[in-house]
Amino acid sequence: MILSRRDCFKTGILGSLTLVLGPFSTSAFELNWLDPKGAAIFRALIPQFLEGTEVYAVQDVLEGVDRAIGGLEPATQAELRELTNLLSFPLTRFFLSGLWSPWEEAQAEQLKAFLDRWRNSRFALFRAGYQGMAELVMASYYGNPNGWSAIGYPGPPVLSK
Amino acid sequence: MNITQMGVDRLRAPLDASALAKDLYLETEVVVIGSGAGGLVAAEALAKAGILTLLVEEGDWVGPQDFHMLESEAYPRLYQESASRKTADKAIKILQGKGVGGSTLVNWASCFRPPQTVLDYWRTELGITGTEALAAPLDRLEKRLNVNAWDNANANNQKLEEGCQKLGYRWGVIKRNVAGCLDLGYCGMGCPLGAKQDLARTLLPDFLAAKGKLLYRAKALKLVEKGGQIDELLAQAVEGSGLGPAQIRIKAQVYVCAAGAISGPGLMLASHLPDPHNQLGRRTFLHPVNISGAFFSEPIDAFAGAPQSRYSDHFINAAPLGFKLEVPPVHPILAATTLDGFGPEFRAKMERFNHLQVMLALHKDGFHADAPGGQVRLNDYGRPVLDYPITPTLWESFFAAYEAMGEIQFAAGAQAVLPIHEQAKTYKTMGELKTGLAGLERAPLMARLASAHVMGGCALSPRPETGVINLDGRHHQLENLWVADGSVLPTSLGVNPQMTVFALATKIADALAKELRPSV
Ligand SMILES: Cc1cc2nc3c(=O)[nH]c(=O)nc-3n(C[C@H](O)[C@H](O)[C@H](O)COP(=O)(O)OP(=O)(O)OC[C@H]3O[C@@H](n4cnc5c(N)ncnc54)[C@H](O)[C@@H]3O)c2cc1C
Ligand code: SF4
């Protein structure tokens, strides 16, 4: 178990490289947890959450969201599924989000209004839904090294000797 | 599936349950469930007393060579529920560790002894005597874990000191359990240098060298009761973020639950153990934290440097609850999931990420009648969740702390202060801040709240009517069940809990060892 500093530094760098390059640069696009309906909602909302951010790929962020959901408790996963189902079914979608059109066709202004409404809702449940989605998207984007330089985060120190 | 059956003394090396090809049946003298601050301390003491002790941990066995200072890797791997655990209403985010070493692997290495005022309260109000016995293990562990004052302060901590200094507020230097720390600032993702003296580095080797055996990536699911005794422990191999196929049965003379607050009481609830006075899972405390950000013109780089080196106890006895001030490490995911807002408003804050200073107020729950803590229960999936009411008194304390934190941040030279609350703006003066705060709703999921100090739920108590375990650490109803982790705390502490958990677990293990080996 006891590694010399040098070994530790070496594996440290190699390890982080694979991690950095591994999950974030795959071209094959596969979702394990989000169904197409859920993915459509996140695809529509990601650009709203990240507006003002110069470069990002919706796909990368979506994949990160999906990966993160995989690490949640079954109950939380079920709640998310329920939320995305309700937000997809036309009648409940309109009722909950004010959107007539499907998520794919919604305008930016409508999407922003929806997020604002949920963020400031009188109902704690909507605020929880908003914060849950915001956390998934923000964690996915800012957990990816691509987003670090623009915010002045140098990334983990390189432990070279 | 076939079964492998054996006494644990035949286990030569730590066993990874996820690699099991067959079901497993093990026999041992004592089994300790959970290898965190309480579990490893207790297990090591037992093993050193010559007692055959099996330590069962659901997380992985990893060390410095596996730590890469990446949040995206560390949170799913080393935290309960990928660091997304929350109270049932989702209003408070809860950080708890997972892995051999438990939360000590990822904690921020701040070391405080239990305050004498708290121990006095336990004695006079709760009838908990004998806490003098904590002094010796505290002395011992401080030496063993190299606990020393950390004079360096990164800018994030420096601002806490400066602000308090200017205002004449009390502040202090934090002691840390580190050796050879290079001030990297990644304690929360596991120290890649092995500098942090977490329990996997310090106590585990001695545990394994004595009569200790380790089974990791095995999740305890049920304590089976038979005739007023625990008869066996059922566990299952962990695979990915779920459970694998291998079933594990463990038969022991004594069972020690040390799975941590929430998970420990959750395991006992799922086991339907007797609880005649409805005490199990009750009075679970969080030191709930509210947060104030501040922008400074100079870089703060709060991701670098020892995460915590300064604190202030100036408000520890303030009405109505008292709070302690500290700062957290600030890394991209932690910041991005804590700062409120979305779109350009949010992005503007993130673009000043390296100028962001963050302060935390930890509120002392469990002493005031209107801050009684929460209740652990099981959800539809049989998993533990915490109902934690945010009472008017807590809100009063949170808002007093927003103001105090802002005052300190402005005194330290902040250009702007941002209370972390969905309706808050960025305030440029103390006057603006006060007016702003007056307009903010005191509602869950408006203020962003967090906790890294979960305590209680299996309270120590001289009487079965007021707690789950007796003053030795033994379950009030079940003779061969003991508890030795943060869940035994009968109140919160007003200080970071790891040292107190270490000391209580030592005391409990000593009592158990004395019973099993009366002659030693
Ligand atoms: C991010 C963070 C920072 C912190 N910073 C500090 C600090 O600076 N100073 C301080 O004093 N305290 C700090 N703490 C708190 C401190 O680490 C905890 O209070 C302490 O470790 C609690 O000890 P415990 O034994 O109760 O639980 P833990 O140390 O959390 O250990 C519980 C263990 O049980 C395991 N487990 C749970 N359920 C099961 C099951 N069913 N089967 C098998 N195993 C199971 C878990 O995986 C875990 O390893 C911090 C905590 C966190 C999360
Ligand atoms: S601050 Fe010190 S103890 Fe923490 S991760 Fe860095 S080197 Fe390790």
UniProtKB/TrEMBL annotation, chain A:
Domain of life per record: Bacteria
Name recorded for this polypeptide: Tat pathway signal protein
Automatic annotation (TrEMBL), chain B:
Segments forming domain Glucose-methanol-choline oxidoreductase C-terminal: 374-505
Record-linked InterPro entries: FAD-dep_OxRdtase_2_FAD-bd (IPR003953), FAD/NAD-bd_sf (IPR036188), GMC_OxRdtase_N (IPR000172), GMC_OxRtase_C (IPR007867)
Short name of any one Pfam family annotated for the protein: GMC_oxred_C
An example molecular function term from Gene Ontology annotations: oxidoreductase activity, acting on CH-OH group of donors
SUPFAM superfamilies (alphabetical): FAD/NAD(P)-binding domain (SSF51905)
Entry superkingdom: Bacteria
Keywords in alphabetical order: FAD, Flavoprotein, Oxidoreductase
Keyword Ligase: no
Protein name per Swiss-Prot or TrEMBL: GMC family oxidoreductase
Species, as recorded: Candidatus Lambdaproteobacteria bacterium RIFOXYD2_FULL_50_16
